[in-house]
Prior knowledge:
Helix content is about 15%, strand content about 20%. It is α/β, with parallel strands linked by helices. The chain has a 6-stranded mixed β-sheet, sandwiched between helices. The chain has a 5-stranded mixed β-sheet with strand order 3-1-8-5-6, with no helix packed on it.
Amino acid sequence: MRFVDEVRITIASGNGGDGCVSFLRERFRPRGGPDGGNGGRGGSVILEATRQRNTLVDLRWNKVYRAPSGTNGQGRGMTGASGEDLVIPVPVGTQVHSVAHGDLLADLAAEGDRFEVPGGRGGRGNATFKTSTRRTPRFATEGRPGVEVELLLELKLIADIGLLGFPNAGKSTLISRISAAKPKIASYPFTTLVPNLGVVRLSDGKSFVVADIPGLIEGAAEGVGLGHRFLKHVERCAGYLHLISLDEHEATSPLERFRALNEELRRYDESLSDRPQIVVLSKTDLLPPDQVERIRAELERELGTRVFALSAVSGDGLRELIGATWTLVSRVRHEAPPEALSTPRSPLLHLHRRSDEANEGWEDDSDPWLDDEE
């Protein structure tokens, strides 16, 4: 399945049905009075986050989504049928932006999160206008129109750990060894063109999610090499495995590459460079063990932190790295989530559908989507 992380769609909720003007006319009831029913509510359009989707590709071809309208009220107090809600499943981690204003309307960061565009309210039938002094109201109200809005949906993957590194650092090989993910693997740079998610399962039933981010290059913070398209997927990771290749054909030293990539993170988002990282020397099978140990010792001395050595091909150092990664994940899960991972408290995310009961809620004429007055 093709990975799509941005799509623009138009959604339109249903119109409310009109209220009915009717009077009861039955034998032996000459003064039956008004009995016009209310119009039905228009259907809402709901974006719902689900883990059954991991890409926005299903929304790429159908650009317009319309919910059905409510039907008009009828005599004998019959309320029109409400339009059925249209639920659109989207991947967890989808952000909803307004195309017209550029605002972030909702961040569907958890399973079951919903963003709702409510349908139009049904009109009032003349029966609801009857009072002790107005016995025969000969008027009703029209249903309120639905809302049509153009949205930009942007997917930012949610994972516990992100794999960072310059192209050909061995990220795809690593995620294929520790999870069931099957990314494209080759001996040339930029073989990974889209992010990949993998679930790492430990022997005691514990697990965590790893995101393989396509290789970044210098200037990624300014969009070089589709940098923005890749960097946005590291925003939701609580920690990183920073892979540094020991390929002898690299033009710069491991320390220089480590600092260059962290500078790109800092320039893109200051908070990203402060997230915990596990530094990993990859492709250790390309150099003699004594040379690998010398490079690792130099890095540990310069960085002041432990540096792991790994050969994803042979599996050397793999078990030790997974254990350290789980320790990091366990610690981060008990701490407050980073600001970039939190869900904005947009009132639009928490809109409640109006009651389906015909005579409830008529006193409140407010509508968060519409400014015009009847």
